[in-house]
TrEMBL record, chain A:
PANTHER family in the record: ABC TRANSPORTER PERMEASE PROTEIN, BRANCHED-CHAIN AMINO ACID TRANSPORT SYSTEM PERMEASE PROTEIN LIVH
Protein name listed in UniProt: Branched-chain amino acid transport system permease protein
Keyword ATP-binding annotated: no
Keyword rRNA processing found: no
Molecular functions per Gene Ontology: transmembrane transporter activity
GO biological processes: amino acid transport
From TrEMBL, chain B:
Leucine-binding protein domain: residues covered: 51-362
Protein family (similarity comment): Belongs to the leucine-binding protein family.
Protein name: Branched-chain amino acid transport system substrate-binding protein
Organism: Thalassobacillus cyri
Keyword DNA repair part of the UniProt annotation: no
PROSITE patterns: PROKAR_LIPOPROTEIN (PS51257)
One Pfam family per UniProt: Peripla_BP_6
Length: 287, 408
């Protein structure tokens, strides 16, 4: 087993999950300039909804994931309507506090509904396969392929459809978008819908290789924030590239430098990149 | 607009209730309470009095499950005692009232909780299920005169010489020798260490690794894993297996540890596992799809309580399963038995509030413990306050739990 290629694959897997989570976060930031801490809770809920569908009604994994995307997406829209929309004219700090509040609320709610214990999500794709001398499981291949497919679809949606263009327009200039007749309310809701859906997809893909529990959002949310700062707040290519950079730096850093210091390596990278490009790898215009 | 909000709120609420019925939920009764909860105050009849017993543990956050399971042992013991009419000390009948506070697994919160329990509820005994909390309470427990029910296998907490600490489970360093001998003989001399990165995991490493080398073994990989930060363990496991070890030393909460085993097997590891006492083999088994020990072949760890054969175990396991619809872990078992021991000690001491007298009569409490309550066999309490329990060790051989004899 070649250690380097194995670790590259591991880095790719973890990077895919990070990217998907960071994408949802960066989309919302790009449009509304809200650092949505509650995104971690959306990730957690995504995993729980998929798991519930699978256990309770025996729904197939993919179908359960689709339901989860819908449910979490709508919850995300609801969150925008009930919390962030009324706060649109408040000072920015209020959004932050509200987001943290939602995070804590949803975590406690999940613990109330599903209990505090760890749960395991079994998928039909557990088998181990040998891919060019690498040991991988089917689920890991799915994570990688799934992430790329989702990113491509998102790209096509934003660049090639009218609705998608409205999101970009609003990210570039909110007032301008309003002036040319874009309904900013609708666009904000749409953005939250996509963001929640992305979190649900990421969680449903990643949950089988780990566990499902109320605190699972913390595993990814801090790293997702690092990624969007690294990539440029609000930038989509930045989120994707940043996710993979963090994934690779973790797996290679743990292998060739030191496992105990791999987080330091990731943050050092952040400092270095920010000192050369203070606004992140892709500043906003690269949306 | 307001009407719209009310409708939305109500529909969300109804979704929550629909979901609340979802997935059979073993820990439902114990879960979800906020920062403070007081169990229902038991009814006292004429002339009966209440003794408050304190508990400070993680009831929210990532370790909530552990805290709830620990508390469930106390809860069960207290309910049984109260149902049987309480207990009599010096002609006065008492019932037990448990007061629990959430410390989120933090030492400083545990200390604040202990203060509050002692001052507001006059608890003679305060339980806490983590070594950090115990150490924080030890700073002032002798002045404030309360006994610490320390559920931790960390030997430090009793070696410090605190006169009002009772360590309930066996010290972990007792396990080092049997674990080493078994795996070294069965699998070989090359060890890779990948335990949890908590202080407890580090202490284990620092005890196990030197002993392993002393016995002629070789440590080829030494690192740790932070279960609260890693989304995926593949990277770390790949590194640990790089040099082809015979034995993997792992541990942490049961469920993530089981995932670690699974991923090591996926990566082609065929050796044995030394499993820290924090993880329980029976809980680990439940995480695997097949619900069998096949994956864990060659693991050595603490004997799961459901498989133990002490006098009081079968009855306890049955009652626990009935009440909580789940298998009890050792944390529930030890908390259960310890409350009985404390009650017996109170009887022998003839007081319910003098913690020094209670501590002095713990040995009598152990001697007086009825056989049917012996979920574990604890012969004596050491001078330092540590229970000397029969340590029982189990290994997985051909997919079955096999008890391993431990030479004294």
């Amino acid at each position: 087993m070649d250690i380097l290629s194995q670790q590259l694959f591991n880095g790719l897997t973890i990077g895919s999950v990070y990217s998907l989570v960071a994408l949802g976060l960066t989309l919302v930031y790009g449009i509304l300039h809200i650092p949505n801490f509650a995104h971690g809770a959306m990730y957690m809920l995504g995993a729980y909804v998929t798991l519930t569908m699978m256990l309770l009604w025996g729904i197939h994994y993919w179908l359960a994931m689709a339901v989860s995307v819908l449910v979490v997406g709508l919850l995300s829209v609801l969150m925008e309507r009930l919390v962030f929309h009324p706060l649109r004219n408040a000072p920015p700090i209020h959004d932050k506090i509200a987001a943290i509040g939602i995070l804590l609320f949803l975590e406690a709610l999940a613990q109330l509904i599903w209990g505090a214990d760890y749960r395991s999500m079994g998928t039909p794709y557990g088998e181990v396969i040998n891919l060019f001398g690498l040991t991988v499981t089917m689920q890991r291949v799915l994570i990688n392929v799934g992430a790329v497919v989702v990113m491509l679809l998102l790209y096509l949606f934003l660049k090639k459809t009218m609705v998608g263009s409205t999101i970009i327009a609003m990210a570039q200039n909110r007032e301008g978008a309003h002036l040319v007749g874009i309904n900013t309310n609708k666009v904000a809701m749409l953005t939250f819908l996509i963001s929640g859906g992305l979190a649900a997809i990421a969680a449903s893909l990643a949950a089988p290789i780990n566990l499902v529990f109320p605190g699972m959002g913390h595993l990814v949310i801090l790293k997702a924030f690092v990624i969007i700062i690294l990539g440029g707040m609000g930038s989509i290519p930045g989120a994707i590239l940043g996710g993979y950079i963090l994934g690779f730096s973790e797996s290679l850093g743990a292998t060739y430098l030191s496992n105990d210091y791999k987080d330091i390596i990731a943050f050092l990278l952040l400092v270095i990149i920010l000192s050369f490009r203070p606004k992140g790898l892709f500043a906003r215009e690269g949306f | 607009m307001n009407k719209f909000r009310v409708i939305v709120f109500l529909s969300v609420l109804s979704i929550v209730f629909v979901l609340a019925g979802c997935i059979e939920n073993p820990s439902d009764e114990a879960s979800g309470e906020g920062t403070e909860k007081e169990t229902e105050t038991p009814s006292t009849e004429g002339g009966e009095k209440l003794v408050n017993i304190g508990f400070s543990g993680p009831l929210s956050g990532p370790a909530a499950y552990y805290g709830e399971r620990s508390f469930s042992g106390l809860e069960m013991a207290a309910e049984e005692i109260n149902k049987n009419g309480g207990f009599e000390v010096d002609g006065q009948t008492y019932k037990i009232n448990l007061v629990s506070l959430d410390d989120k697994y933090l030492p400083n919160e545990a200390a604040a909780n202990a203060k509050r329990l002692v001052q507001e509820h006059q608890t003679p005994i305060v339980y806490t299920p983590h070594s950090g909390g115990v150490k924080a309470m030890q700073v002032f427990n002798e002045q404030e005169k309360f006994l610490i029910g320390a559920y931790t296998s960390e030997p430090d907490v009793t070696e410090a010489g605190n006169s009002l600490t009772v360590r309930i489970p066996p010290r972990y360093d007792n396990y080092i020798e049997p674990f080493t001998n078994y795996t070294m003989e069965r699998f070989g001399k090359k060890l890779a260490a990948l335990p949890t990165s908590t202080q407890y995991g580090k202490d284990w490493s620092e005890t196990l690794l030197p002993y392993w080398k002393e016995q002629g073994g070789e440590v080829i990989y030494d690192s740790s894993i932070d279960f609260s930060k890693e989304t995926d363990f593949f990277t770390l496991v790949t590194n640990a297996l790089k040099e082809d070890p015979d034995v993997l030393f792992i541990g942490g909460p049961s469920e993530p540890t089981a995932k670690l085993v699974k991923q090591a097997r996926e990566l082609g590891f065929e050796g044995g596992f030394i499993i820290m006492d924090q993880a329980k083999l029976d809980e680990m088994k439940k995480v695997t799809k097949a619900d069998s020990y096949e994956l864990f072949e060659g693991s050595i760890g603490v004997m799961p309580l459901v498989n133990a054969d002490y006098p009081g175990t079968p009855q306890f396991v049955e009652n626990y399963q009935e009440k909580y619809e789940n298998d009890p872990g050792s944390e529930a078992g030890f908390h259960y038995i310890s409350l009985y021991v404390f009650v017996e000690a109170m009887k022998a001491a003839g007081t319910v509030d003098d913690s020094e007298a209670i501590r002095a009569h713990i040995q009598d409490g152990l001697d007086q413990l009825p056989k049917e309550k012996q979920v574990y066999v604890i012969d004596e309490v050491g001078k330092d306050g540590g229970f000397k329990a029969d340590r029982s060790v189990a290994a997985i051989e051909e997919g079955e739990i096999v008890p391993i004899k431990v030479g004294e």
